[in-house]
Polysaccharide deacetylase (Anaeromassilibacillus senegalensis), 312 residues
Amino acid sequence: MKRAKHVRRGNSGKVVSILTILLLFALFSATCFPLSHALQKVDSPSLSTLAGQVAIEGALSAKPKIVVESAPVVKTTPQKQALPNDPYPLLYTEKISPKEDDSNEKIAYLTFDDGPSDLTIPLLDVLDRYQVKATFFLVGKTGEEDRKAMREIVKRGHAIAVHSYSHDYREIYASVDAYLADFAKMHDLILKETGVDTPLYRFAGGSINSYNRDTAKAIIEEMNRRGYTYFDWNVDSGDATRGTTAQQIYQHAVNDSKQFRRPVILFHNTGTKKMTLEQIPAIIEALQKEGYRFDVLKADTPPVRFRIPETA
Ligand SMILES: [Zn+2]
């Protein structure tokens, strides 16, 4: 009250000045409003473009926040799907629909996660011996030998794909932004090292795991919007389970595969998976005997994915 009286009594000139400034400010805001409104719209990308394979409900609240920092350049030509303010405007690929799965042909897909490692080249040598092609879901290893192994995977005709750069579940599944940042880094490494702009990926721990209960749907939705195709597996060799014996790896891979016309078999290719490497010849021979041929996963391969729980 005291201050108001003071203003009215002695400073009417000042009041006029303040009012003028306020008026100018209001005019300025009105002029700028359409711009700020447009920017707000840009910050809320529509995530309604979903792939037909995955039913996603209730995930639209988890809109990705746009962070414009540390965006790796992964391609030379921007894709038309990119939204303004997209932190990864080049991280798009053409969405490919899966092929009709109408043949009775038995095809096995050997998939190796968590490489490259010291055991990558020895594994490639084994696969060469059988002229079998496999799919490698890679992590962020940047040593000279690891880079060479990545190039060899491609040179010898195998499929190369993103697994995760850090493979740190807590970090990558914290949010859509966190997942994208990790994915972009790995995608970029593969592209720079091998020249392959891979459309394929596999989630660390699988698409549904105990670390991404709150974020899986939103992450999948965003990755679908960007056109990328992920694969889980329907046969687990068990080679990542503590205490698994060589015999068990063989039995899981062979016996469980027989239940599927198109088994997608999970193996690992870290430096400690020597037992896996040693079982691969016998596994290949057993599956060939069962009438399977081997192929690499492609963007149009009929998907093998975990079901997203209704309540996730
Ligand atoms: Zn993994």
The chain has two domains: 2-42, 43-312. The radius of gyration is 26 Å. Residues 237 and 249 are 5 Å apart (CA to CA). The first strand starts at residue 107 and ends at 115.
